[in-house]
Design a protein that fits this description.
By secondary structure, this protein is mainly alpha-helical. The protein contains eleven helices and two strands. It has a two-stranded antiparallel sheet. Helix 2 (55-83) packs antiparallel against helix 3 (90-124), helix 3 packs antiparallel against helix 4 and helix 6 (178-212) packs antiparallel against helix 8. It holds the Pfam family 7tm_1. Keywords: Disulfide bond, G-protein coupled receptor, Membrane, Receptor, Transducer, Transmembrane, Transmembrane helix. It comes from Callorhinchus milii.
């Protein structure tokens, strides 16, 4: 192929494939996480008088909200970086989008870390941990997670800035010097990946040892242990997917600072893949919930049935309104016709011939 053909293929890839890929991630992730939130809130509303929400449900709800915010606030803008030649959204969004990316990353990984500790306590100390594993304490932990995430992500509000380059083209680029950027990126890798992943591995290793290596055959067959195994299996899969999906993103950063990372087609493709994987992580969790947990499958079905029922009710209501309007229009048409006929009769002078004669005579 000629250089012109290669350039056209590259433009077609940037303008067609990349937007389609990001749109698919956005659509699936938004629909899935909205479904998770709706299922959890509906279950809570239906059973609000029976029992309080579990700590795991609260953490999963927080994780879904963080993923939803990440998808809606970041993915559409990040897609334009690969498809457009310039940044169109101003200085505020340049800073806000990258801030929200790392805010969501921190809140997600710390939520998963809190869930891993919660699962370990529930399985290792089922009775003693009840006083600690309360909804109130879970909400307190969620508030601490968001506060810590805000602190760790806040430097990114000044990390990026809109810059005007030759040709009157604006770009959203890092403006810190290399030394500060290197320290910031390494700190993000340590506090946003290494430490949480280490805690996840330690917590789930001990949890699996307690849950799957059982010496009591009666306890092995209990329904409670089977339920705990399913919940723990689901959370482990979610945590493993987070680690795998965000690993390429951190590898790109580490290669840039400590390795060899030239800007060519191969590195461009790998950087795009790393971004797509980190974004796709936010739409994989609802799929895991649906595949592993029968309770989530039931919740999703109930939400769908509720939406379909409301849609049918709205259609029936619209048909009834349309029929009522048409009936009123027919009735009003008949009434108008009768009134028009009556007005015509009243407007005709009863003594018209005499009036005409009088007028003629006067003239």
């Amino acid at each position: 192929p000629t250089p012109g053909d290669r350039d056209s293929e590259k433009e077609r890839f940037k303008t067609v494939v990349v937007p389609a890929l990001f749109s698919l991630i956005l659509a699936l992730g938004t629909a899935g996480n909205v479904l998770v939130v709706a299922a959890l809130l509906r279950q809570r509303h239906r059973h609000r008088h029976r029992h309080s929400p579990s700590t795991t449900e609260l953490f999963i709800l927080n994780l879904a909200l963080a993923d939803l915010g990440f998808l809606l606030c970041c993915v559409p803008f990040q897609a334009t970086i690969y498809t457009l030649r310039t940044w169109l959204f101003g200085s505020f969004l340049c800073k806000a989008v990258h801030f929200i990316i790392f805010l969501s990353m921190y809140s997600s990984v710390y939520t998963l870390t809190a869930v891993s500790v919660d699962r370990y306590l529930a399985i290792r100390y089922p009775l003693r941990s009840r006083e600690l594993r309360t909804p109130r304490n879970a909400l307190t932990a969620i508030c601490i997670i968001w506060a810590l995430s805000l602190v760790l992500a806040s430097p990114y509000l000044s990390y990026y800035q809109v810059m005007l380059l030759p040709g009157d083209m604006t770009f959203c680029l890092p403006v810190w010097n290399h030394h500060r950027r290197k320290i910031m990126d390494i700190s993000t890798f340590v506090f946003g990946y290494v430490i949480p992943v280490f805690i996840l591995i330690m917590a789930y290793t001990k949890t699996i040892r307690c849950l799957w290596i059982s010496v009591n055959p009666i306890e092995e067959l209990s329904e409670s242990r089977k339920a705990k195994r399913k919940v723990t299996k689901m959370i482990i899969i979610v945590a493993a997917l987070f680690c795998l999906c965000w690993l390429p993103h951190h590898l790109v950063i580490l290669c840039f600072w400590f390795g060899y990372f030239p800007f060519n087609k191969a590195t461009y493709a790998f950087r795009l893949l790393s971004h797509c994987m980190s974004y796709a992580n936010s739409c994989l969790n609802p799929i895991v919930y649906a595949l592993v947990s029968k309770h989530f499958r039931k919740g999703f079905k109930k939400v769908f049935h509720c939406l379909l029922r409301k849609k049918v009710i709205i259609k029936v209501h619209m048909v009834q309104v349309a029929q009522t309007v048409s009936t009123l229009e027919v009735g009003s048409t008949e009434t108008v016709g009768q009134n028009t006929q009556y007005e015509q009769q009243m407007s005709e002078p009863e003594w018209a011939p005499q009036d005409t004669l009088i007028t003629f005579n006067v003239t």
